[in-house]
Sequence to fold (163 residues):
Amino acid sequence: MRTARKAKTIRSRFTSKSERGQALIEFAVSILFLMLLIFGMFELVLLVYSYNVLADSAKEGVRYAIVHGTKSGSPSGPSCPCPAIDGPVGTGVVKTFAQLSLHDTSTMTVNVDYNPGGHNGASACNGIPCLVRVTVSYPYQPFFALGWTALTVNTAAEGRIAY
Fold:
């Protein structure tokens, strides 16, 4: 009759008793690095999403400003010559578009500029269709508070008013 033998534990000559927890420590360090990498990628995806939403909202503001012109009270169409406007046309459209994408619009800055950088206050567009530029500035707050600083996301869109 055979008797069951006790299995021998074979140790390598390179391992000792003090190295038994090494795999656990390596796993802990590796999983921390991996989790930081995953959270960083998720944060980057959220940042790109915010930029994309703000760029699209600026485009919506340009479309609205092109159609409604410089007079926010009367949506009769664009008017040229291009005077500086008193109130930004399309600001509400930009903020509404961004708000529908779950962004806080209370800290968002929207600037609408008719005929940007041109004609030095001249009253006519000199035969060129007027330009309208909508710039949006949004302070992005990171989703995870891992010590990253707050960023300001800036986007702009520009279009011509055809008359």
Residues 72-87, 120-124 have pLDDT under 50 and may be disordered. Residues 23-161 form one domain.
